[in-house]
């Protein structure tokens, strides 16, 4: 299984221990790319294939998420 930042591995059965909880979420693709995601009311396409995790404690996010909007530099 591919680790998260800081060498952490996603923890599927753990709750987020961060304050505030779920501050930063990401999905790691097979090639190692990290994709920032945000909590959502309904799951996006990426949520059908991957699990999101907290980037600080590596707890698996148990709710729907979507890819964060990209911002473009002017």
What structural class should be given to the helix and strand makeup? Answer: mainly beta
Biggest sheet features: 4 strands, antiparallel
Strand arrangement, major sheet: 3-1-2-4
Mean pLDDT across residues: 83
Q: What percentage of residues falls in helices of 4 or more residues?
A: under 10%
Which assembly state applies to the chains in this document? single chain
Measured by DSSP, the beta-strand proportion falls in 15-25%
* CA-based shape: globular
Spell out the helices and strands N to C.
EEEE
> How many E strands?
4
Rg calc: 12 Å
Please, could you describe this protein's structure?
With 74 residues, this protein is mainly beta. The chain has one domain (1-69). It has no helices and four strands. The relative contact order is 0.29.
Essential attributes:
74 residues; mainly beta; 4 strands; 0% helix; 20% strand; globular
């Amino acid at each position: 299984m591919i680790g998260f930042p800081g060498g952490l591995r996603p923890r599927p059965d753990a709750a987020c221990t961060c304050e505030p909880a779920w501050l930063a979420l990401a999905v790691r693709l097979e090639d190692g790319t990290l994709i920032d995601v945000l909590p959502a009311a309904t799951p996006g396409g990426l949520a059908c294939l991957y699990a999101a995790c907290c980037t600080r404690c590596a707890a698996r996010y148990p709710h729907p998420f979507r890819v964060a909007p990209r911002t473009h530099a002017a």
